[in-house]
From TrEMBL:
Domain of life: Bacteria
One Pfam family from the record: Adenine_glyco
Keyword Transmembrane helix recorded: no
Species of provenance: Nocardioides iriomotensis
GO BP terms, alphabetized: base-excision repair
Phylogenetic lineage: Bacteria, Bacillati, Actinomycetota, Actinomycetes, Propionibacteriales
Name of the protein this chain belongs to: DNA-3-methyladenine glycosylase I
């Protein structure tokens, strides 16, 4: 369902009232991210979001960026047990040991992947030939053949917390698929997919 805002723009209900979510929807969600650090950050935040609301993660994103050295893969890959304990004591982030350790593991996998073209090339290689065109939330998929294949490929490269649903959310967030509802002012704005 779309809601027409005071500015006359149509947004989904999740982005219609909270200013933080509205700004994220209007300026960032679904826009192409093709750099290694940007993709590593979003991959990490999608893992932390598992079981929580995206609003919670978005509110904590500045603290996450500080705690994880701006999601610089080289710096995070060098973290040791002491860094994990430091992060577990940081009330500004989600203090989940498995997710913190997964972020370190994924940083190391990201660095190793540079030998074969890098994280961005791998993730974007799973762009589907067509994008969904949902008219309602019931029509928005939660995973796809491509997100399943991406999850499998990443797991094969040593990544963790990269299930097909999480990878579909990543693909939505970074513009690989466009699941903005038909009628939304953001549909087709990524420049990747034609407006439909």
């Amino acid at each position: 369902m779309l809601v027409i805002g005071d500015d006359g723009l149509a947004r989904p209900t999740w982005a219609a009232t909270d200013p933080l979510l509205r700004d994220y929807y209007d300026t960032e969600w679904g826009m192409p991210v093709r750099d290694e650090q940007g993709l590593f950050e979003r991959l990490s935040l999608e893992a932390f979001q598992s079981g929580l609301s995206w609003a919670t993660i978005l509110r904590k994103r500045p603290a996450f960026r500080t705690a994880f050295d701006g999601f610089d893969p080289d710096r995070v890959a060098a973290y040791d047990a002491g860094d994990v304990e430091r992060l577990m004591a940081d009330a500004g982030i989600v203090r989940n040991r498995r997710k913190i350790e997964a972020t370190v593991t994924n940083a190391r996998a990201t660095v190793a992947l540079r030998e074969d073209g890098g994280l961005a090339d791998l993730v974007w290689s799973f762009r589907p030939p067509a994008t969904p065109a949902p008219a309602s939330y019931d029509e928005v998929p939660t995973q796809s053949a491509e997100s399943k294949a991406l999850a499998k490929a990443l797991r094969g490269r040593g990544f963790v917390f990269v299930g097909p649903t999480t990878m579909f959310a990543l693909m939505e967030a970074v513009g690989i698929v466009d699941t903005h509802l038909i009628g939304s002012h953001r549909r087709g704005t990524s420049g990747i997919w034609a407006t439909r």
